[in-house]
Amino acid sequence: CFICLPVRSVDYASHSVLAMGLTSLDKIIALQRNPANTRNLCILAHVDHGKTTLADCLVASNGIISSRLAGKLRYLDSREDEQIRGITMKSSAISLHYSNGDQEYLLNLIDSPGHVDFSSEVSTAVRLCDGAIVVVDAVEGVCPQTQAVLRQAWLENIKPVLVINKIDRLIMELKLTSQEAYTHLQKILEQVNAVTGSLFTSKVLEEREEKESETSSGDQVYDWSTGLEEADDSQLYFSPDQGNVVFASAIDGWGFSIQQFAQIYSQRMGVRAEVLLKTLWGDFYLNAKAKKIMKGAQAKGKKQLFVQLVLDNIWSLYDAVVTRRDKEKVEKVVTSLGVKVMARDSRHSDPKVLLSAICSQWLPVSQAVLSMVCEKLPSPLDMAAEKVEKLMSVGARRFDLLPEQTQELKKAFLQCSSGEDAPAIVFVSKMFAVDTKALPQNRQRPLTQDEIAQRRELARQRHADRMTADQTATESQRDLTHSGNTSQDVQPAGLSTGTLNSTLFISFYFFKHTAEEEQKETFIAFARVYSGLVKKGQRVFVLGPKYDPAQGLSMLPEGCSASDCVPEVPYLSCCSMESLYLLMGRELEELEQVPAGNVLGIRGLEECVLKSATLSTSPACPPFTPLNFEATPIVRVAIEPKHPSEMPKLVRGMRLLNQADPCAEVLIQETGEHVLVTAGEVHLQRCLDDLRDRFAKIEISASKPIIPFRETVVRPPKVDMVNEDLGKQQKVAIIHQVKEEVTQGRSSDTLHVDPSGLVTVTIPNRMATVSVRAIPLPEEVTHLLERSTELIRSLEQVNMSLREGKTVDVSLRTMEAIAGLKAQLENLLQGRKWRNAVERIWAFGPRRYGPNFLLNSVEGYQRLSVWHCLGRGDKAGEAGAAVIRDFDNSIVSGFQLATLSGPMCEEPLMGVCFSVERWDVQSSAVPQHQDSLEENSISHEALANSRVEGSTKTSSEVEGTVAGQSQARRRPEAASADCYRPVSGQLIAAMKEACRRAFQAQPQRLMAAMYTCEIMATAEVLGRVYGVLGKREGRVLHEEMKEGTDMFIIKAVLPVAESFGFADEIRKRTSGLASPQLVFSHWEVISSDPHWVPTTEEEYLHFGEKADSANQALKYMNAVRRRKGLYVEEKIVEHAEKQRTLSKNK
């Protein structure tokens, strides 16, 4: 039976909601000045877990939309395609007012997308917030994107609270009892806490390792568990008794925290609210005889307090209203709860309307969530010092090594002061485009009484003129008919008509032209003020990501401000904030000033800010650390206009799209193609729609997606294609066959291929010879290099600075990470052929930080290792290497060019080690030292020019660039260096050729980009899901059944090349019951050899002489070659006819 609850508590709740009516702009401006009562929060969740519906309920509490439309309107999904698809595609902010007792709060709420393609929008939202509401579906539980958003919140040091949503599905869909639902909810809490716990554990272990490395002396055994035991994780986990969990059904408008029920039952049962708060969630039950709350409900087979006092009430309400539609019971419930239900709600044919009317008054979800947010999430004043230091320390720079003035800004962050003397610090997380008509100054406003009267008078006058003109025209027509006048009498009327037509044409043209001008998009910066008071029209410094405050302070005069005439400083510019806006979902409200701790929109930064930036009135402020993006843009398409004359519009449109989307990238390749890079298929479709309808406003055609591949070599196979063991003779025969193919068309005096795979190339003027061998790297090493891209880039920057004689302040953490990388490589590269290999690494490539490396195996050449920054001052071997060091960079440049585009289909190499085993240079070729420095810079520039991802620029063009620059810089007086340039340029070309030939002398393979695909499906459609995966070269890793549901979770890998249209096909084949989430995972070697031909007798028998069965690797390789305009070797059958026989067909 339904437990009668005191009416007084319900009155309080309903009063609180009614009190939060439509808030005036003045009220919000007043609340902005109190940072202690400001909360900046975002809603994070997996796709379709109910973020936007929950946001609707919170927005409805402020009277912005009707509570009846909450969940149906999706107010913060303002784009048309968001409404059609039913998913959020961008972050939208809105400011809400909430009264909790005598305190008034301002909540800057940001709704974020849950689809993996738009996870970059989540990053932009998370950076501006101090807290987050994590929403989890009560049926689906923790999904991949739930883990991703929890990780993003953790990385940005923001505090999360939990809302377990869609509890109505446990009642209506899964038909669970209240006891089963309690067990199910416990499991979901455990899953969420497991994710949080793993993040916490990894952080603690990292900190302990750092401390250990600082204090350790000699070898000692270290117990990791001690760090975890000492660390305080009391506030880390989600638990209803801590008040950081709300149970809700946003679509039905109800939600509650345990505190609400604890207060209600403390009055009814005469038990202190504190006791109930600790016992309502957990293994406690009510002993009716002893009238005590006791532990051990599960062991004694009793109902837990949470089930008895909370869930049973909700279950019986759903049973009465929705399942049985028992009018008498519903009336009793309504009376006992003291809620008022309108007659039209009780008579409505849909029982959910009545349910929503009761629940939204009894347990309003906005009341539960907003009170939890105000009590549990931090204000801008509570920002942790650790978070501030993390924001201000970019790349390898340490906070304690930043200039003193910069370190003093930490106080401004922590105080969050809006005083006149406080420096203004603003971070722009993204730029978004708004129709100019939607700006407050251009918005249509209601007319005054005087204006209405004026318009009425004008309309009357116009009507009278029209009537007079019509009457005159009728009379003149009548006169013409009766008198039959000559055409001369009609002439004036004709003239007046022509004049009228020309006037109409001019006014139409002017109107059209004006309309086109008005349709321009305006860019608004999505930002937050961390310190100071930002005013309309204020000038600020825009700090680029590479801006160095130490350099800026040394170049700028003391006390310099952005409004002064500022000398030119690298990565520093000035701009004016034209307008400031309060972001209200679909609306913008203009503001004069915004104090610290608030989220705002800024107009006028489009010329200075591309995607994100740091703004400050102080040049001592460092740029903030870049945003953490979970999704990698990987889907590329080439775009061109339908009409070539509209190319300038496309270029402008793509520039605007690049600025408006935080994840999209726009490239112009050497071939002239305009390439758009996006995170996935849905993201690509949105970008193309935006380009077509908003930014370029022209018809465009997009190519098929450009799929990225990598090229690699593998160890020679031990079995052939029919799994027969390859004998030594056959192996040798195959290798000789490959060598013959390799050496065809090249003169043997400049190129020699050894049977062991060693390739020797001599440059045309015979002054230098290079011998290179390609060796496949172990898979673990390739993965390590790929993961450590940023670290290798930092290592290269440090080495470059040391070579140029500059001093660099590198953080201890970065140096430790570099040393750790070296130790890991040494551990993974074991065995005779890898002896001392790590010390002999010459360079990484391509772009000096890729997953390949060049190995120095030249006898007697002791050059500096790439790790020499770890032991500075060790200059041993420099004198001995001085003779040939001048051409050192030519070898590296040749290696970089070779790894940037491989011989198979001009795609970058991956997991290949090139070992230089011989390098001879004639002494007459050695130049003066000053020229070697110049050559160094030339080859750097040439390589930089060729560094466009997916570029189809050929090696000969790049070499031509090097030669051209070399000719341009030739000094006539340097006659002694004349022989230098041809040697250097030829050596680059020879090294590149040697690497390519060495690569071809080994078994070659293509590597495909792979998606991890997670699909939730019911048992009925499981077979169809497997069918679609099998057809698209997918591979199922594992499947498991979700406890308590009939849902299966399938985890699979799928090549990116086969993923286009995959989601649509899955949905069609399963009637919408399965929906996949695709996330880029890794690169995988395609096992088949694209150049394979049958060589053994068994292979001839199995595959036939032509062996023309489908070769997936060859298909991919030829597709890429065809797209790049390279030669494709394929048989084309022309004029194929059916075989004719002499006898007639009967």
TrEMBL record:
Protein name (Swiss-Prot/TrEMBL): Elongation factor-like 1
Organism: Dicentrarchus labrax
NCBIfam families per record: small_GTP
Annotated Tr-type G domain residues: 36-381
GO molecular function: GTP binding; GTPase activity; ribosome binding
GO cellular component: cytosol; ribonucleoprotein complex
CDD domains: aeEF2_snRNP_like_IV, eEF2_snRNP_like_C, EF2, EF2_II, EF2_snRNP_III
Disordered: annotated span: 459-493, 927-973
